[in-house]
Amino acid sequence: MPRPTRRHLTLATALVAATTAVAAVTTAAGAFDTAQQAGNAIQGGKAKNVILLIGDGMGDSEITLARDYAVGANGRLNMDKLPLTGAYTTYAVHADGTPDYVTDSAASATGWATGVKTVNGRISKTPGTDKAVRTILELAQKNGYATGSVTTSELTDATPAALASHVTDRSCQGPADMAKCPTDTIAAGGPGSIAEQSVDHKVDVLIGGGKQRFDQTVTDGKYQGLTVTQQARKLGYQVVTDSAGLKSAKAGKPVLGLFADGNVPVEWTGRAAAVGGTDPQRCVTSNPNRPASTPSLADSATKAIQLLEAGQKHSGKGFFLQIEGASIDKQDHAADPCGQIGETAAFDKAVEVARAYAAKHPDTLVVTTADHGHTSQIVPLEATPPGLSSTLITDEGRQLKVNYSTDTPGRSQEHTGTQVRIAAQGPQAYRVLGVTDQTDLFTTIREALRLR
């Protein structure tokens, strides 16, 4: 293990003293279980595994809303129990490198995936010259680690795409979607669509939605005439489409799980926010449009960890896994508080899975964060906000009003440019403390895994 620097020793001494004092007065609902947990988390060292959990659009308001509704104002979610917490800035850039203060998911994911900021809409390529930048997943593969990506969006959506593809525009998801990426097509000597690149990378575990992209036909190159799914099978993938198939998947061969044509259906339903508000409502914690054969995000995360760990049994190396709760963002765009809360709760169960694994494997770095802030705001019951609002009845039996006002009613609600939470435990977790930038997360993971 590298010798700690004076800065790290000073930081560690100060944090242990501070967390000891905090632990003495923290209630059972507090973020620190014990001072020892916090002390362990500030240590440096090398990680064998990294589990990165991304709540898309999960700003502090989205976390607070889910907490208030599901576990109570004084309760704590699993993500609240990570011992070290900071914030990071999320801005994108223009082609000339000047700040673009509100990011989209493509530019934000590129930030932590590559350590380089880019323009909105671009996937793991430079902002001005449109050149591919090596990603953290590619570095992990190069260094012998197993890799995985789990999401509730299409596997070709921006956040998972940033790990295993490089395209000029995020819309270039399948072979038939390449209109905005002429130089990325295989015919032009490029790497192809996001779907083609993702399977070409031979990521060990790919789980999510987006079957419609993988069912498109490859138009050029070695796999011309095949669908991308057939291309994946040619590359050795086990292709699964439901819970039973996922359960039966074996380690040793890559896994492509496609559980919906588009995005994976949400967990909860309810009435969307409306101009003038809604009558008080309880969320419906089951969605009749979600097939029973669809695995939960937590189930997918559990299986991904099992497959990655088993696949590395004889190598001595570990794994890098990204897990995304994608539809927190999508339900925020739709001003649907129940859909949003349900997806946050589902994401939080995946955080629980990751923390349970790390409890048995303390050489695992667990990080949970978001790609950007979003629109939902908890407002006073007596407020009459100008946008879309809804009143909920929480599990505590109290009313809570949530408002969506980042665009005109009837239009998709927008991201915000706020900093967002980042929290961690395990080797190098101390790097998330204070206010950092999204690109610093790339360095944190690279240093934790000692990637070269």
Task: Using brief descriptors, characterize the structure shown.
452 residues; alpha/beta; Alkaline Phosphatase, subunit A; 4-stranded antiparallel beta sheet; 14 helices; 16 strands; globular; disordered N terminus
Produce the secondary structure layout.
Elements: H1 6-25, H2 35-41, E1 49-55, H3 60-70, E2 84-89, E3 92-93, E4 99-100, H4 105-114, H5 136-142, E5 146-154, H6 158-164, H7 194-200, E6 205-209, H8 211-214, H9 228-234, E7 238-240, H10 243-248, E8 255-258, E9 274-275, H11 297-311, E10 319-325, H12 327-333, H13 337-360, E11 364-370, E12 377-379, E13 388-393, E14 399-404, E15 420-425, E16 435-437, H14 438-449
Parallel strand pairs: 1-10, 1-11, 2-16, 5-6, 5-10, 6-8, 7-8
Antiparallel strand pairs: 2-15, 3-4, 9-13, 11-15, 12-14, 13-14
Helix pairs in contact: 1-2, 3-13, 4-6, 4-14, 11-13, 12-13
